[in-house]
Amino acid sequence: MRKLWTILAGATLLLGACHSSNNDSSGDNDAETTTVSTVKVPVFNADTAYAYTAKQVAFGPRIPNTPAQKKCADWLIQTLRPLADTVYVQNTTVTGPKNVQLPCTNIVGVFNPGATQRILVLAHWDTRPAADQDAFDKTKKLDGADDGASGVAVLLELARQFHQQKPNIGVDLLMTDVEDYGVSEEENSYCLGTQYWAKHPHVPGYKANYGILLDMVGGRGTQFFMEAASQQYALGPMKAFWDVANKLGYSDFFRYEGNGAAITDDHVYVNTIANIPTFDIIALQPNGNFAPHWHTQNDNMSVIDRRTLQAVGQTLMQVIYAQPF
After folding, report:
1. According to its UniProt record, what is one Pfam family this protein matches (predicted)?
2. CATH number of domain containing 119
3. pLDDT tens, residue by residue, 232-282
4. Structural domain harbouring 118
5. CA–CA separation, 90 vs 109, rounded Å?
């Protein structure tokens, strides 16, 4: 993904005012259930999510047209199939920069397929071909532990929890491919798997009440600011999600301030092509830049922090089980 524009400076003041009244409680993540509502909410297991992250990294960089891409895709499908009610696999070819043809595998795990009220949760599982932001060697490959693997790991742990205790609503977990092969010189060269899915959803005419994108959700010291394109398309669901996170005690992660950054990420195409209001949970710095390990060789397992995975995963669980709409 890449940064697109800087807008919404005025919204920073409004959302900053909201922040002061929503960070006064903390959660006990060692208890068996959360306590924000009367609904019993399972506890997200950050150790399992961490292991799912490490498993993806162990395949090597998941770059399109490499053996690691095929091996990781097969593992994701095999892991998801026993957990979901239905699994859809989209195998296609997309056109990357300079007209290169790239194999693409999108994977969708569906829970409660008959439910009309639905939430879409998505993350990409591929890695960028080279660490182009690295300070020492921009040609080296990178593990993509945070940028790719962490979001998919959270989805897999959600699937494991859903299999044990079904939520009352429909949930679709979308794992997209070929997100990070793009170049800034070519418009719409990023997020190719999501662009394909948005035009060819796993179910014809698919709709969800809203979507949640996870991108770089496992890094140590991460902060999630309210990204500008998400505010434009899905401010209501995003604000509600941030409220839940803060009530659970994760105010150090989920900041109400906008930092002006708008990102060309998967949610843009879900919003503009599939017309599903979708917001992005993505690691950003207060100045609007990406996390320091973004697109560098430092994006490896050493940056992955269970507490960050827990903050994101437990908030998702609380929203999906107790406060989805």
Report:
1. Peptidase_M28
2. 3.40.630.10
3. 999 999 999 999 999 999 999 999 988 888 999 999 999 999 999 999 999
4. 2-322
5. 12
